[in-house]
Every structure is written in structure tokens, then in C-alpha cells.
Amino acid sequence: MERDVIYSLLSAICNVIAVNGFLTKILCAKNNVFLVVGMTVIHLLMSYMEHISGLFAIGILLILVFVLSEEYKLFNLFLACLSYLFSVTCNNIILVVLDRIFGVSTITLIEDYRYVFTILYSIFLYIIMLLLRRILYEKIKINNIFFEFFESDTVLSFC
What we know:
mainly alpha
């Protein structure tokens, strides 16, 4: 049971890092703690459902990000989905690299290195999200591009 709590907590932290990654404004610490605790409880209560519990938890997490976002709720929901998909893609790429280059299978990671991998992946994801966030908001200025597009007459004529 103790191991389930630790793994659920680590998974929740990783999921919250993933959905916060591309938001126009990262949620405040209080909201992030709320999300981590909530996701941990959901993982624990639904652990008997295995992977389906993760999908359910992500759905709830995305809804909560929508509710907790202070501005641009729909845009932030889109960005949270996008950053979560990016996180899943990174995770799968890392698993393939570990398997092909180092010969460490996913099964071995799950059985022997679950906590180490999750902690290292969470740190990696946090760093990658910070770098991508800088690129998106400081270099590309994605928020300006998005809002200029939606304020144009072309888009408004379709509404």
C-alpha cells in the first residue's frame, strides 16, 4: 500500500507538470498542490482499474485546469491537452531509446526502476517544459499570434 501511495503521488506530480507546461499562466502553487493531492487520491481509489484510472484522472485534471485557469480558459484547456500529449510522446520516445540503445525494456523499468524512472522523467519533463515555455512565449510569442488570429474579421465571420 505504501508503494502505491508513493507511485500515485509521483504520477500525479508528473501529470500536473505535463498539463501546466504550455499554459498561458502557470497555476498558482495552492492550485497545483490541490491538483496533485486530487490526482493522487483518484489514482489510489481507482488503482484497481489500472490504465483506465489514468485516463479518468487526466480527464478530471483537464477539467480542473479549465476551471482553475484565471483567463483564456478554452485556450488554456487546449494548451493543457497539447502539453499532456507532448509529455506522453516524450515518455514513449524515452522508453524506446532506453529499450533500443541500452537494452532496458519497459517491463524491466516498471518492475525494477519504477520510482527512479518516474522521478527522473518528472525532472526531465519539468526542464523541457520550462525550455519550451520560454520558446513559445518569449521567442515565438504564441499568445499574441493566437489572439490576433481570433480577433481577425475572418474568424469572427464564421462565428
